[in-house]
Amino acid sequence: MSHSVSTSIFYAVVVALGGFIFGFDASVISGVVGFVTTEFQLNEWQQGFVVSAPTLGAVVGSLFAGPLSDIYGRKKILITIAALYVISAILSAFSVSYFMLVMARMIGGLAFASLVLAPMYIAEISPAKYRGKMISINQFNIVVGFSVAYFANYYLLKMSGGASELAITLGITENVWRWMLGLEIVPAFLYFILLFIIPESPRWLICNGQQQKAKPVLEKLFPEQNSQQLISEIEQQHGDELPPLLTRLKTLFSKNMRLILVIGLVVGICQQITGVNAVYFYAPSIFEQSGIGQDAAFSQAIWVGIINVVFTILAMLLIDKLGRKPLMLIGLSGVVISMSIAAYGFHQASYQLTPQSVGKLTNEQVQNNVEPIIGVMYPSDLAFKEALNENLGEEVARQYQAELIQAAANINPLLIMIGILGFVASFAVSLGPVMWVLLAEIFPNQLRGVGIAFVGLVNSAVSFTVQFVFPWELANIGTALTFSIYGVFAVIGFVLIYKLLPETKGKSLEELEQVFNSDNKVQHRQSLAVS
Fold this sequence. Notes:
This protein is mainly alpha-helical. It folds into 2 domains: 3-198 and 243-347 and 414-527, MFS general substrate transporter like domains (Growth Hormone, Chain: A, Up-down Bundle); 350-410, no CATH class. The chain has helices at residues 3-40, 44-72, 74-93, 98-111, 114-125, 131-161, 165-170, 176-182, 185-194, 202-207, 211-221, 227-238, 245-252, 258-273, 276-281, 283-288, 294-318, 324-347, 355-359, 364-369, 381-392, 394-399, 401-408, 413-428, 431-442, 445-476, 479-500, 509-530, and strands spanning 350-351, 409-410. A two-stranded antiparallel ribbon has the order 1-2. α1 (3-40) runs parallel beside α3 (74-93) and α5 packs antiparallel against α26. The protein is globular and about 80 Å long.
């Protein structure tokens, strides 16, 4: 590997560290939500809002990140994002109320705009031959962040349950969820410092009339190519001055951009509406629904992180060889199969408390209150939860739900495990990394900021909705139907991507503009012929 490629990879790794922090921030809440639900006495909607609050912030962050990076540069906005991560982590760990925790996590959500900017920056510094792999570094860091959060949650939970002097001294036994949230301060501060050593995107510099600053960056990134010729090619394609924001927005929604925008929206919506963040952010809660108990649920969530990392690496190895479209279709097929397995596993489950299982419950008052439903067979988790609410009250039922489901469930937990891990593998090899690669490729240079920002806005809005309603879905329509809905959306996504998505591997960003311009002209002529 040449020195220039190594330099590009180093810059990509630094920028993609934001993906690690996103992954950690997003999934660490899976271990926190149970504790804060008890501490702040949250209902299902409040639980959903604690989990989804960052994504609501991301809706705002994604809307402004692209346009602001077009005005001020990719680097300055990335540094601002890193600062927001640091502030959010500190405030989250020291939250004293539900409102403060939600606000702190919304600040962190503004920083989720790194998911928009990192692929954009990496695409603009990468050789075409390695672009798919290099953009995928961001997704790889995201899944590593997921895994580290799951491991950290599990081991902090273990420490909090013990009586070690270290855990008592550090306050882990009393404040385990604060430690879970506070660990993010370390990578967030490191990210903030490292961003000062990367250069500004050379393509952004050229599009903003700063050719002299772009030239040494191009010479460092692409020494085998003539820097002046590269500057001329970029200038010829895009001019030497970035058009006003309203002009770019008008162009983005013009007929010539319709195909690109539709493809971006289909991929962006499909990535979230198939349920990925419900699985990632509520992993222990989902495994608790299979009756394995809290500790086992936390340990099984670790497998979500491990599978995520392994299959993201596989995607990185295949994306520039097999291509973007085949990976998307393979992954969506896997999502359909996996969600069907999980839905079937929950559908065939039944729930019945016995005198023996009730006798093992930790709370004597709960034992007494569930006596009227001992021996009653419930055909679904939904029916069983309704019975618990009637006999215990919603607050107590919610607090002891994992223990009660473990006592009553007649279910095949292995089937649930296979379905969930199969989904994670399918997503990690396709929708996870490929979406960001495609978005960074299909939009032309001058529209890349606003284009990715708009699709990121829609993507975040769908993600927020999925996360926000998930606890309500579990409580009101049941786990089986919830996963079935995700599977149906995956089928729709497969059909649309099969029909609309062209292959983009191996082409420069300027070549891809010409390809999509040609496709748009053909599409326009066909529509005229039909009319």
